Amino acid sequence: MNPQPRKINDSFSESNDENQQQKQKKKKPSTQLPQPGTAQGSCAFDSAMITLVPITDAAHIVHGPSGCAASIWGNYTSLSSGSMLYKTRFTSDTDESDIIFGGAKKLYKGILELQRRYKPTAVFVYSTCITALIGDDIEGICKDATEKTGIPTIPVHCPGFIGSQNLGNRVAGEALLEHVIGTAEPDITTPLDINLIGEYNIAGAIWNVLPLLEKLGIRVLAKITGDAVYQEVCYAHRAKLNVILSSIALINIAKKMEKLYGIPYIEESIYGVEQINQCLRNIAAKLGHPDLIERTENLIVEETSDLEAKLTPYRIRLQGKRLILSIKNFKSWLIIFAAQKLGMEIIAICTQNNTEDELIRIKSFLGQDGIVLESESPEAILQLINNNQANILISDARYRDTALIARIPFLDIDIERNHAYACYRGILEMARELYATFYSPVWEQVCRPVPWDVGKTAKEITGASPTSLEEI
Ligand code: SF4
């Protein structure tokens, strides 16, 4: 039965680092009841699509019920500078009769029709829970479709039930390694060719990185997979260095490319000034080209001083403001770096499901009186705001109402963000966002007493102004 057990088992065995991290996570009592929102998240199929859909000139077909495709499509703001084909949703729309008689023929006909009408450079076919359970042979269908159309048709064995989001990323990586990488040759190669792996160009993040590399004369041979075209992924095996920008998700690609093609890899972050400085330095050191290290240092000096100058007006207005931050994913840590650069005071960090190492790191960012709240709830956050005179709450949309009740500015930052916070430009973007949120005229209106409270004593107003959710 598909999905191919060997490949999925391989991916499981490569998840050891991840499993270690899971073990490190603080144990929760088994009696813990589910809370609204805690089950929110995506399946392996979803994350496999997130990894591959940014190959923008390919068509992506979900082989399964239309609900699988509908549940995730458009959730992420991965941007393209060229083809918009990746934005079109295709599905074989598996129904009851397909479950009984098999959906293979329907899928095959669909691929032929899609090829005729849209002329994609490649087609990716994603299995889902239903089509994997009924045993549709997508491997064979893709082979037949490739032979018939001449367009590479790539199976991705990613039914949701195989495991976590990270496993979906890995399975997507396996599909690229097996069917795409190494299948074409670039016109030319240079000693400064690199691949960027694991940055999906959410809100255009990769566009903040490329100009820096271009200034250094470093060529990005393939982006795996933000704002990528199919062809560039095919010749990724000719790069001199793989730079992983999201370490857990696609590390299997880098490890296997090192084994198969002898390409070394480094894991870097582009979120935070120190992080991007270090990233550029490490790339230069690894490429080892004469005078590249010196040029990199010059670029860092130029970019950081330019950033400092641009941040100054924001720092003047934001310095000393007290913020509470709810961290959900690693990139949210960028906010910590940005807030520190702007002289803001982080009085509390609310966090869940972090490893011990991450908790130690989080605590190191806070002052002596800083609070780490490991069990979040709107009530607890409201209390934190009231007890610590917080000026702003930064979180995903879960706590928007909490901020409104506390009548303080709220900045919504989530994985589906609409602003690119990567690199030096990203820090500036974050400063603009913080400033625009904090000084939005709406807060003056929100904090003004309502007409029926005018003339009342503070005690009377407090009675009308709730301080906890129960009072609403
Ligand atoms: S868990 Fe299975 S059925 Fe649900 S969206 Fe993912 S692939 Fe589809």
Please describe what this structure looks like.
- This protein has helices at residues 5-13, 16-24, 44-52, 66-72, 96-101, 104-118, 129-133, 138-149, 165-179, 206-215, 230-234, 251-261, 273-287, 292-318, 333-341, 356-365, 378-388, 400-406, 423-438, 442-447, 458-464, and strands spanning 59-63, 90-91, 123-127, 153-156, 193-197, 219-224, 241-244, 265-267, 322-327, 345-351, 371-373, 392-395, 410-412.
- It is an alpha/beta fold.
- It folds into three domains: 5-14 and 40-179, Nitrogenase molybdenum iron protein domain (Rossmann fold, 3-Layer(aba) Sandwich), CATH 3.40.50; 193-305, Nitrogenase MoFe cofactor biosynthesis protein NifE, C-terminal (Rossmann fold, 3-Layer(aba) Sandwich), CATH 3.40.50.12380; 311-461, 3-Layer(aba) Sandwich (Rossmann fold), CATH 3.40.50.
- Strand 10, helix 16 and strand 11 form a beta-alpha-beta unit.
- Helix 1 crosses helix 9.
- Bound molecules: iron/sulfur cluster.
- Residues 43, 45, 64, 68, 71, 128-129, 159-160 line the site of iron/sulfur cluster.
- Iron/sulfur cluster (SF4) binds next to helix 4.
